[in-house]
Amino acid sequence: MSDTTLSGHLAAAAAMVLLPPDEKLLAILAETYHTKIDLLRASQDFYDTLCVPQSGHYVPPYAHVLARMRQIKGYYNFPPARYDGGDALRAWYDAVDFEPLSLDVDPMNQGPHRPLDHIGFVLTFLSELADAAEKSEVAREIAIGFATEHFGHWVDCYVDMLSRSDSPYISFVAEALAEAVAAVRENFPQEVKADPDLAAV
User: Fold this and answer.
1) Would you say 46 and 21 are in contact if contact means Cβ atoms under 8 Å apart?
2) Alpha helices in the chain (DSSP H)
3) What element of type H or E holds 70?
């Protein structure tokens, strides 16, 4: 990712799960990793893995779904996403006038009933807090509190599942997310809470 600031780092990772790849992004990846990726395949992999539940490759990007998934005989079982599944985040978003449903994202990630706990929304929110935290201790405290409450093991599960993809592009997405997760935890250190819903994961 070209932007080395924390805010830019998180925003770039968020964009990779909210928007399909374009030629500019693939050129950056090719220059960085010396690997050429076909745009049509990368775009198809984006939709199949990150957007379309019926694709057979879909990994749900929602905290409330990932927190309740189960692994049975080597297969992941996900409960259906609920439109109100991320409503617990609304108070945090409202506190700083963050409106995820107004972001410039792919149409597949739009709509009034899109759950608020999409990992792309979460990272964009933290990106905006990171920018504000450079001048405001209050913003930093909000970021730490939010990360403690809502940036738990589900994020690691999501990154791990994406990293297992045989898609070169999705592998890069997983790497970008892993770096973003590490950056959040380094800059907004939180108490890691054990999640009883993940005991079987």
Assistant:
1) yes
2) 6-18, 23-33, 39-50, 63-66, 90-95, 119-133, 137-150, 153-163, 168-187
3) strand 70-72
Q: In this structure, are strands 70-72 and 75-77 parallel, antiparallel, or unpaired?
A: antiparallel
Give 197's strand partners. none
**The CATH classification of domain 6-198, taken from the options 3.10.50, 1.10.10, 3.40.1000, 1.10.3480:** 1.10.3480
Q: How many CB atoms lie within 10 A of CB 30?
A: 12
Which pair of structure tokens corresponds to residue 166?
């045989």
**pLDDT tens digit at each of 201 positions of the chain:** 444 699 999 999 999 999 999 999 999 999 988 889 999 999 999 999 999 999 999 999 999 999 998 888 777 889 999 999 999 999 999 999 999 989 999 999 887 778 999 999 999 999 999 999 999 999 999 999 999 999 999 999 999 999 999 999 999 999 999 999 999 999 998 755 555 454 433
Query: What's the whole-model pTM score?
Result: 0.90
